[in-house]
Amino acid sequence: MMFPHPPAQGQTLPLELRLPIHKKTPLCLEENPSRTGAKPGLDPWCLPNPGTALGTLDFSLLYDQENNALHCTINKAKGLKPMDHNGLADPYVKLHLLPGASKANKLRTKTLRNTLNPTWNETLTYYGITDEDMIRKTLRISVCDEDKFRHNEFIGETRIPLKKLKPNQTKNFNICLEKQLPVSEGGSEPQDKSLEERGRILISLKYSSQKQGLQVGIMRCAHLAAMDANGYSDPYVKIYLKPDEDKKSKHKTAVKKKTLNPEFNEEFFYEIKHGDLAKKTLEVTVWDYDIGKSNDFIGGVVLGINAKGERLKHWFDCLKNKDKKIERWHTLTNELPGAVLSD
């Protein structure tokens, strides 16, 4: 409806023209370049409340399926909420995989000073990420303000269910930050409080027909829980093949000093008939070495015919494929059913 002339004195405007005019609030967008035969498009991601705008964050995610790695590239943020007296902020980005209460799975960028429009261009990588993680985990991305004299302050966050990602395809995001969400939200399932994730371990298994035995490789660990006051651990790994009546199956790796991502690359051999392996379980535990006091248990995993999920599949694949080395990442937890956790 068009009115080329202003209304005469005393004339009432039609209702359509008396409604208040709101400025359009820009949508925050998720880039979606995966459409076949189409140019990269933009899909609506969120519509922020203009009165509580916290800023936008530009980042990309890539799941490298072959190497079990999740690469998180934090590009930049725009229009962050001022947090300091000078009207600026000292922002950094923190990543956290949910569910998972451990500090071991938190990563962060460097801090940039006195800016509301930071550019990081920094890639943070989670190692040991399995296909199972990609189905059930959610990535929490938080932007915070670093404060030297007080607690760091939260600016805003977003949650990305990892099942939104396709293997080996980079997905770009440009999203509006939201207020802090309860941990139970964001697509994550409630966590069993008795089981806390303590990091990841890469284990290889191979049954050798020639040597008539099981070769166990302890390759590396990633994102271990810190047990020492310096924020690190001095980790080593112990393995048992149970039941172990003679208690001769215990093996240990060397201790790696001051690291949460140790590389061991050590192999151990158990002489055993192939048919007997189905009755056995392999207990793998990671410890923090301490001088002059008891060593601290970091986490462990049990592989065997009575295990579940990836732990069962790894054991079964080893039994089924003689003379083939099979490497798999496994999640370390703070409790092992039936295990005696003393060094």
Tell me about this structure.
The protein is built from three helices and 18 strands. With about 350 residues, it is mainly β. The strands form four sheets. The chain has a six-stranded antiparallel β-sheet, with no helix packed on it. The longest helix is centred in the last third of the chain and has 12 residues.
Q: Which key features would you list for this structure?
A:
Immunoglobulin-like, 2 domains, four-stranded antiparallel sheet, 3 helices, 6% helix, calcium, Synaptotagmin, metal-binding
- The proportion of residues in beta strands is 35-45%
Helix content: under 10%
For this structure, what is the CATH class of the largest domain? Mainly Beta
The unreliable regions are 1-7, 13-29, 31-52, 184-193
Strand/helix succession: HEEEEEEEHEEEEEEEEEEHE
Alpha-carbon Rg, integer: 26 Å
Q: Please work out how many helical segments DSSP would assign.
A: 3
CATH topology of the largest domain: Immunoglobulin-like
CATH architecture of the largest domain: Sandwich
The CATH fourth-level homologous superfamily of the largest domain = C2 domain
Tally the beta strands: 18
Biggest sheet record: 6 strands, antiparallel
Domain C2: 53-175, 197-330
GO cellular component, one term: presynapse
InterPro entries: C2_dom, C2_domain_sf, Rabphilin/DOC2/Noc2, Rabphilin_Doc2_C2A, Synaptotagmin
Keywords: Calcium, Metal-binding, Repeat
